[in-house]
Amino acid sequence: MLSIKSISKTYAGRTLFANASLQVNRRDRIGVVGRNGSGKSTLLSIILDETSPDSGEIAMERGSRVGFLPQESAPIGDETVIELACSFSPEFIAAAWRLGALGQAQGGDPTNDDYETFEAAGGGGLVAKARQILGGLGFKESDFDRLAKELSGGWIMRAHLARLLVQEPDLLMLDEPTNHLDLHSLIWLQGYLHGYPGAILLISHDREFLNQIAHHIVELEGGRATRYTGNYERYLVQREASEAQWLAAYENQQKEIERLMKFVDRFRAKNTKATQAQSKLKQIERMEKIEAPFVSRKKMNFTFPQPARSGQRVIALRGVAKAYGDLQVYRSLDLEVERQQRIVLVGPNGAGKSTLLKILAGVLGHDAGERDLGHNVQPGYFAQHRAETLDLNRTVLEEMLDTPVNVTEESARTLLGGFLFSDDDVFKKVGVLSGGEKSRLALAKLLLNPPNFLLLDEPTTHLDMGSIDTVIEALSQFRGTLVFISHDVHFIRKVASHVIHVEQGQLRHYPGPYDYFLDKTGQQSSRAAQTSLANGAPMKGGSPAGRGDAKTRKRREAEQRQALSKKRKGKQAVIDKLEARIAALEERQGEITSLLELPETYATGGQAQQLNRELMQINDDHERCSDEWSIAVDELNAIV
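Now predict its structure.
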């Protein structure tokens, strides 16, 4: 469908791509990863023909439709949410209104052309699909007729995502699609994309999302685009093995060059050996030099001041009520948080998670009840507006060092490096930073001098994977108390030790990590758990109705789990076998490629031809096995 051949691109003397190539086929699920500034967004821009490569070719299959969701902003006019989601064409929207498909008929009587235009684009089915997708992404029925421009930027991006899913382009390109989603909408999107009929090319810093969606990972690094088979976790394993092989090959070549140069240095002045020395020099010149491995993943190693110790009871809410006008969020809420608990708040969109976090932080008042803060408790609340408290006239480093505790410049710069502020970046004025950069700086500063009661609302938004690891590492050292909201399942699993499910003004406690919550809610995956909870499915220990049939129900559930488990194990065995075959083929590909680079290979008659024929067969087998692997993974993901 899409072929990128040997593209090169340089910005301000810095090489993003050097003869990079990529092939995208129908039904591919490709995640693009790389350091900040490695060229991920530029690659999408080149595919969209918004940016031209310095050299190379981009070829798209004729008639293929491309859809793109940018990371931050997308155009918006005077359309309603449902109009935006259904924006197949202006003619379709006008016809749909006249036919009453979007609500009460508007714009005069429908004509025959209206019927034809409406039906040609999908008719009522397309409108129903748009409503379903909007609902999955967290919109309420009452939101559909609102002007999209009245919404926040995050909700506008959700509406644009709905538009793309309704249109179903042949190639769907998504740049950080999870940034503006809550956990429920994220899990819904994962499930929806599993059945998407086209190819998907996405940039994401959400590991769990990549693990759920991607069948291939393309890593951009050092000007190269390296493709790996499997999801993100399998990519990490393959990359480590590849880097080890690369380092070994580089070191072996350097040893060989050193050996040859010793001969040259020793005998180049001797008449009897000069010819041999010159031959050794030419041998070195003919070598295809292996570049030194590029090392960009450094282990963060830093410590930061620990907060003062609080009392055992950090905070208590008793009979708390909160309403926004006629909307009653909480009526009589009780909650106690104890020292060193790490609580994640989960629940459907609009359940009141952010409201609860703000009440705990003391940044939002409540209508009734008591908020009792414990002994020596110092709350600290992180939200997007926190970046507005930064001094715009300071440099990044000066702002970082403006803290009441004694912090060395080295410690501050180490932590800043984990949040993508390196080298001269630390001397930039805060006022010239982007919104995302200010948020990163505010979070880094908070972790450098944390209060003993941290309340974080989506702390990983706009962070890359290295920075997320930095936050996780920092919080692993944190000896205070933490309550947070996040849609990043990897982050939740690494940080949370206690889960509170918030729904319809009620709290349900799960005194264990995220997987314990999944187990107790009777689900087999985070996707199934969040979907069922969002749809209001009962959890274990819920409604007393049906207890008379509890044994029968439990037996049937156990039988269903066993059947699903057996089916999944069988499909997983097929996947494991294919992955082993793909790994063997890739290993042989490397061996043959190395042999074909040796001059000796061409000295023996027919050896090079034989190796080329074998390589062609291996390439065919690799493509076939990769396609079978993709199908098998889709089938495994469908077993829920």
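The mean pLDDT is 83.
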